[in-house]
Design brief:
The protein has a seven-stranded parallel β-sheet with strand order 3-2-1-4-5-6-7, with helices on both faces. The protein has a single domain (about 10-269), classed as NAD(P)-binding Rossmann-like Domain (Rossmann fold), CATH 3.40.50.720. β2, α2 and β3 form a beta-alpha-beta unit. The chain has eight helices and seven strands, in the order βαβαβαβααβαβααβ. Helices cover about 40% and strands about 15% of the residues. About 40% of the residues are buried.
Length: about 270
């Protein structure tokens, strides 16, 4: 028997059209799962579905993770099609985006950081994880089995090193804000709460904390980031596929409430 086999398991992935989300979907599909591709961008979700193995077995669902009614509607439609929910990957997340790059250095400073940006991160990164777990997790509880994987970050465990966001001239063009560490730290502890709460019902809940992914960033930033990791590189988008399948599958059957850190050693030093 292959404990990593996900044949005919039903796996929901939120934030599926993002760089890491696409690879989560691919990994689960390659392991045999029926993947429910969830995001606000329907066209990107459909493009991803066409790339997955056996595309006809997968499903695209468009909903806002901050709207409980939309999540409930998606749940009904998913169960109508598959009759169950086995896996939930809470991957949808908000990261800082500043419309004017020339003002990003000032706006991203803690002293000037806009409250409305913090609230948006809380809404998606915390409330979205809470609601999706609440709605989809109840189906798992009723089945007496299931695996929830909450995607956090190394910045949920350690504070950002602001020096890596300086340019080659030593200018601080951007600060990593408090919003991401606040919300991702909350996700890690929410995982522990759910693991303790639903353990008796056969629902496992774990966190995946990834490190930074190389994605066309400035060469100098990549060099700064890589110098802080023992493996001397940023992650590739595919580097988390094995971890997702492990946490979703019976290979991690005796694991709950844990935080699996896959960061190239960033938090080890």
């Amino acid at each position: 028997m292959n404990p990593f086999d996900l044949t005919e398991k039903v796996a929901i992935v939120t934030g599926a059209s993002g760089l890491i989300g696409q690879n989560h979907c691919m990994a689960l599909a390659e392991a045999g799962a029926n993947v429910v591709i969830c995001d606000m961008n329907e066209s990107k979700c459909n493009e991803l579905k066409a790339k997955l193995p056996n595309p006809e077995k997968h499903l695209v669902k468009v909903f806002d993770v901050t709207k409980k009614a939309e999540i409930e509607k998606a749940k009904v439609e998913i169960i109508l099609k598959y009759d169950k929910i086995d896996i939930l990957i809470n991957n949808a997340a908000m990261n800082d985006m500043f419309e004017n790059p020339t003002l990003a250095g000032q706006q991203s400073m803690f002293e000037h950081y806009p409250l409305e940006m913090l609230q948006k991160s809380i809404d998606v990164n915390i409330t979205g994880v809470f609601l999706c777990s609440q709605v989809f997790g109840q189906a798992m509880k009723a089945q007496k089995r299931g695996s929830i994987v909450n995607v956090a970050s190394t910045y949920g465990m350690v504070g950002p090193d602001q020096s890596i966001y300086k340019d080659r001239n030593g200018n601080q063009t951007f600060y990593k804000s408090a919003a991401y560490p606040i919300t991702k730290g909350a996700v890690i502890n929410f995982t522990r709460f759910l693991a303790a709460y639903w353990g008796k019902d056969g629902v496992r809940v774990n966190t995946l904390s990834p490190g930074g992914v190389e994605n066309s960033q400035d060469d100098y930033f990549v060099m700064n980031y890589s110098a802080k990791t023992p493996l001397n590189r940023m992650a590739k988008p595919t580097d988390y596929k094995g971890a997702i399948v492990f946490l979703a599958s019976d290979a991690s059957a005796y694991m709950t409430g844990a935080n699996l850190v896959v960061d190239g050693g960033w938090t080890a030093i």
